[in-house]
Amino acid sequence: MSRLLQQIKKKLDELPERDLGKVFSFVESLGEPSGPQPQRGSPERLLQHAGSWSFGEKELDDILTGIDRMRETELER
To answer: Which residues in the chain show pLDDT less than 50?
Structure first.
């Protein structure tokens, strides 16, 4: 075993059990492809965290239109 692996193992042995899951998640993420990410706040980026959504016909458009109206109202104040 290399010296670096020995040092990592020693640090892992010292960690509380509750933190080992965080370490495991981090190590798994290192193997994931790191291509360009969708823009922050974009539907694609939000869906990564929220799962898939389904809307009725024009329902999403109505929601987004309502949000735009609320923003405009706030700016007018």
So the answer is: none
* Cβ-proximal residues to 25 (8 Å cutoff; 6+ apart), any chain: none
Which residues fall within 8 angstroms of residue 20, CB to CB, at 6 or more apart?
12
The answer to whether 38 and 45 are in contact (CB under 8 A) is: yes
Residue 24's CB: how many other CB atoms inside 10 A? 11
Q: In one letter, which amino acid is 40?
A: R
The two three-digit tokens of residue 55, written as one number? 């809307």
Q: How far is CA 53 from CA 5, 37, 50, 69, in A?
A: 43, 20, 8, 23
